[in-house]
Specification:
Elements: E1 14-17, E2 20-23, E3 29-33, H1 41-54, E4 58-62, H2 66-81, E5 88-92, H3 96-102, H4 104-109, E6 112-115, H5 125-140, E7 144-149, H6 155-166, H7 174-196, E8 203-208, H8 212-225, E9 230-232, E10 238-239, H9 240-256, E11 262-263, E12 267-268, H10 276-288, E13 297-300, H11 309-333, E14 341-345, H12 351-357, E15 360-363, E16 372-377, E17 380-386, H13 390-405
């Protein structure tokens, strides 16, 4: 029998972000980011809770001006009042040293600071501003994520590496030097933070690019050169299926190699679309790789000329909707319900086999027949459903299966 290869994580350091442990042998963490103006306290709280309920274990917010910084204590205090222990991370650019200094409660209550070494300041103020942020992190016992981004890379470091490369007999490509600069920026910044006094177990690194192969290359190299937990994400992944596929390709490759401790899908949502799509994508990637379970999984056939497609498609959609609506309740009542496997199949060719492999599955006979479906539980045929209420009856069987098979907490 062929066994699954165990994925061995590359990072060994652990970093505590609020109530979440990141790195080492801890579960890979799903995180997301709000897109509300942070000073709009009500809207930001609503979106944080929405993301958290969808499965985001850490939520990042923009802290870009004094009003946003003043809003942070109010946001976190309101979450606490609602008994929601959600790690909220502040994302700082250019003026983070000022905002954290002027609003001490912002610095005190955030679970982590995210800074970009490429834009903590300009010219001779850059190192001073970086040092100030690190000192505040030390004072408040907070971790930081040093997040290098190719769109805002440290131009002084990049220019220096480009100059040295140009003097070589066989210079490397500009893309190669750019990737090298990203890695060096992250590692040099982490080293500088430790020299200032920040413990190594307070540092997370990220190095984001928008091209899949560039991202894979950079993280492979970065993981060889440090033991810090790494946050994965394809920056500016894109809209719709392009963003989904690019993110999945990049993150899956790295995760399969044991690289990555937190992940985010930086998708561009459609106007008015929920931000939770990026959370669900991250969960699906981890669950598809069998790294973590988040919700019962439905196997459903694509349909063909043998199937009455609209019937089983609607059945699969109804089952998925039932799961989505009940997971918050189920996960608080039934231990390991996330591992449940359900099959919804459209005909007798692969239907019975797929249904037997699932915990509970339903197999329709195919096209042009009266509505009838065989149900299998734990590999055995247990029911035959007929008539116009097959969906409702199967949902009831799923609910009964969960009640009987999963240990109550």
């Amino acid at each position: 029998m062929v066994g699954l290869q165990k994925i061995i994580r590359k990072s060994t350091l652990e970093v505590k972000v609020g109530n979440i442990l990141v790195g080492g042998k801890n579960p890979i963490v799903v995180q997301s980011m709000t897109n509300t103006p942070t000073q709009n306290i009500k809207a930001t709280i609503t979106q944080i809770i929405e993301l958290y309920n969808a499965g985001s274990e850490i939520v990042r917010v923009t802290v870009n001006d004094i009003e946003a910084a003043r809003a942070i204590p109010k946001i976190i205090n309101e979450l606490d009042r609602k008994n929601l222990n959600i790690p909220v991370v502040g994302c700082f650019h250019y003026n983070g040293h000022t905002l954290l200094s002027e609003i001490p409660d912002c610095a005190k209550l955030l679970a982590k600071y995210r800074i970009n070494p490429g834009n903590v300041g300009f010219k001779n103020k850059r190192d001073k501003n970086f040092e100030k942020i690190i000192e505040l992190a030390i004072k408040n016992k907070k971790p930081i994520r040093i997040g290098v981004n190719w769109g805002s890379l440290d131009q002084y470091l990049l220019a220096d590496l480009m100059d040295k490369n140009a003097k070589l007999n066989l210079p490397k490509s500009a893309d190669y030097i750019m990737r090298k600069a990203i890695i060096e920026s992250a590692l040099q910044s982490a080293k500088k933070a430790e020299e200032i006094g920040l413990d190594s177990n307070k540092i997370i690194l990220s190095a984001k690019l928008s091209k899949v192969q560039d991202l894979i290359s950079v993280y492979r190299e970065l993981s060889k050169k440090c033991n810090y937990p790494l946050h994965l994400g394809l920056t500016e992944a894109g809209i719709g299926i392009k963003g989904v596929i690019a993110t999945t390709a990049a993150l899956s490759t790295l995760l399969q190699e044991g690289i990555g401790d937190t992940i985010r899908a930086s998708l561009t949502p459609k106007v008015g679309e929920s931000r939770t799509t990026e959370v669900k994508l991250c969960q699906e990637i981890l669950q598809s790789l069998e790294i973590r379970d988040f919700a019962p999984q439905i196997s459903a056939c694509p349909g063909c000329g043998r199937t009455s497609s609209t019937y089983f498609q609607q059945l699969a959609q109804d089952i998925q909707k039932h799961i989505d609506e009940n997971m918050i309740y189920w996960k608080n009542k039934y231990k390991n319900v996330e591992s449940l496997k359900i099959a919804v199949m459209g005909c007798i060719v692969n239907g019975p086999g797929e249904s037997k492999h699932a915990d509970i599955g339903i197999s329709l006979p195919g096209d042009g027949e009266n509505p009838v479906a065989v149900v299998y539980t734990d590999s055995k045929k247990t029911n035959t459903l007929r008539g116009n209420n097959i969906t409702q009856e199967f949902i009831k069987l799923v609910d009964n299966y969960i009640t009987q098979k999963f240990t109550n907490k």
